[in-house]
């Protein structure tokens, strides 16, 4: 796999990055940074938004859920669209829509319009995320160059998430509208830079038409699944509404699988899931993000509701985790080259389990350096190892024309995992809520939720363990429907 940007240049050592290559990666990182920034930044601003626009708590929820619904529901379609319509074209159009929706969100004076702008932003992110990831995997050849690029790219997501927490605390003090408007100029700068720097990509010429039934069924099933999970804690997990919604999801997914099996040009080629590495990457992504979102939800409630910390104080408490990820960005690629993705994913999940378990010690008068900081450092180290490795493992050995599809599938696993496990953690905490809400009683109701978070991370570790068996045979192997060269006998395959 060779790209014009990474082809050997006379007089330049092979493997050295050109300024244009760095510029391309910077544009893609900016989009990923904005996606993560937008998710975390809105949370702290919700009370101010509700007060200013006169919105109820249930309506405020949809400012967050609207983004998740658009993002998680359309990722499969976004990934395949990047393959069929051209990665560069899809990325740039979606980034432009993201900028306009950000501008709209900061100017509206209506709750429904604000929710609509958030849905549109999630929709556009559902196209930029898989398109951006597939541009990286088709621009950087598989191996050390791609591993380094992906480690930097995924680090920008963690950094954006952490920065969003801090920036939201600062900007909301002035106006909640600034939290909505901030992504707009950054997205526009990235858009203009991308028009000059991103490599032109051809549409997939030899495809068997557009899988319209699959696109409709896949999109509807993901939208309904995310909607049902988001609403389940409020409607009740055993309510007729929730059960009927899950039944409808099952029917839609069954129909989707049948259509994909018979389609000449499927939205998702189901054969990609015959690879054990691929399945472990997808399930690992669900456990990784699901456990972290659940932990952040409970830790934020603990710090603000029980300890009385301000939004900025809480954001700074999370900052060591994001800072650790940021400073390790240039080193993770080399570590992946040496040890392979399964070992790093397993090590990362082990650190997550330890970090979450340590947080179970919290009380109503914690010493930050002794109780909370160790958890944040362990989680930061885990994120630095797991997230890049999952992206590398999911995209290694996949043909160029299916990179968008696999990228969309991985991002779908991340978002759906986050939505499902956050809802489960919320339900567990709500079920254990004390009749007399004393501070100690509320803290005790959080502990089962933290135990569930720890169990989710432990499940991620168990999922990863079968992949630790390494193959050292020389030759070529079929991975996810494409042929990739196996590693030399003295080297562990990165994606094995």
From TrEMBL:
Any single GO BP term: response to antibiotic
TM region(s), chain numbering: 21-47, 59-78, 90-108, 120-140, 152-172, 178-198, 210-230, 242-259, 279-299, 311-332, 344-362, 368-387, 408-429, 449-468
Compartments reported by the entry: Cell membrane
Family annotation (PROSITE patterns): MFS, SUGAR_TRANSPORT_1
Residue stretches making up the Major facilitator superfamily (MFS) profile domain: 24-472
Recorded GO MF terms: transmembrane transporter activity
Entry keyword set: Antibiotic resistance, Cell membrane, Membrane, Transmembrane, Transmembrane helix, Transport
One Pfam assignment: MFS_1
Protein's name in the database: MFS transporter
Organism placement in taxonomy: Bacteria, Bacillati, Actinomycetota, Actinomycetes, Kitasatosporales
């Amino acid at each position: 796999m060779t790209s014009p940007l990474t082809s050997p240049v006379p007089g330049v050592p092979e493997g050295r990055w050109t300024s244009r290559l760095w510029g391309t990666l910077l544009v893609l990182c900016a989009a990923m940074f904005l996606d993560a920034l937008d998710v975390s930044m809105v949370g702290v601003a919700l009370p101010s938004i509700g007060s200013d626009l006169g919105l109820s708590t249930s309506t405020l929820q949809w400012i967050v859920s609207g983004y998740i619904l658009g993002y998680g529901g359309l990722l499969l379609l976004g990934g395949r669209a990047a393959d069929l319509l051209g990665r560069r074209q899809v990325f740039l159009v979606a980034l432009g829509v993201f900028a306009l929706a950000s501008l709209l969100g900061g100017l509206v004076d209506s709750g429904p319009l604000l929710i609509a702008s958030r849905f549109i932003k999630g929709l556009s992110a559902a196209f930029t995320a898989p398109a951006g990831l597939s541009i990286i995997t088709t621009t950087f050849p598989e191996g050390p160059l791609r591993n380094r690029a992906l480690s930097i790219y995924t680090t920008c997501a963690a950094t954006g998430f952490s920065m969003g927490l801090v920036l939201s605390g600062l900007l909301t003090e002035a106006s909640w509208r600034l939290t909505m408007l901030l992504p707009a100029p950054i997205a526009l700068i990235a858009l203009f830079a991308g028009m000059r720097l991103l490599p032109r990509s051809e549409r997939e010429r030899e495809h068997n038409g557009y899988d319209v039934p699959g696109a409709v069924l896949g999109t509807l099933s993901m939208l309904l699944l995310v909607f049902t999970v988001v609403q389940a804690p409020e409607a009740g997990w055993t309510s007729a509404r929730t059960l009927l919604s899950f039944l409808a999801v099952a029917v839609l997914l069954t129909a989707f699988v049948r259509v994909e099996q018979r389609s000449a040009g499927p939205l998702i080629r189901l054969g990609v899931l015959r690879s054990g590495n691929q399945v472990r990457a997808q399930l690992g992504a669900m456990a990784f993000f699901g456990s972290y979102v659940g932990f952040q939800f409970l830790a934020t409630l603990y710090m603000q509701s029980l300890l009385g910390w301000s939004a900025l104080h809480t954001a700074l408490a999370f900052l060591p985790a994001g800072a650790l990820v940021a400073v390790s960005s240039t080193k993770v690629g080399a570590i992946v080259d040496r040890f392979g993705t399964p070992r790093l994913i397993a090590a990362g999940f082990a650190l997550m389990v330890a970090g979450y378990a340590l947080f179970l010690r919290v009380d109503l008068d914690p010493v930050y350096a002794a109780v909370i900081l160790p958890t944040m450092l362990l989680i930061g180290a885990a994120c630095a190892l797991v997230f890049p490795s999952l992206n590398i493992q999911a995209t290694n050995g996949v043909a160029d024309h299916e990179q968008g599809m696999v990228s969309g599938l991985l991002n779908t696993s991340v978002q759906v995992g986050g939505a499902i496990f956050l809802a489960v953690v919320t339900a567990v905490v709500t079920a254990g809520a004390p009749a007399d809400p004393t501070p100690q009683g509320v803290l005790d109701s959080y502990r089962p939720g933290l135990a569930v978070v720890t169990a989710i991370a432990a499940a991620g570790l168990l999922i990863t363990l079968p992949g630790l068996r390494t193959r050292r045979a020389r030759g070529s192997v079929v991975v996810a429907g494409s042929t990739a060269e196996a590693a030399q006998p003295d080297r562990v395959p990165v994606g094995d």
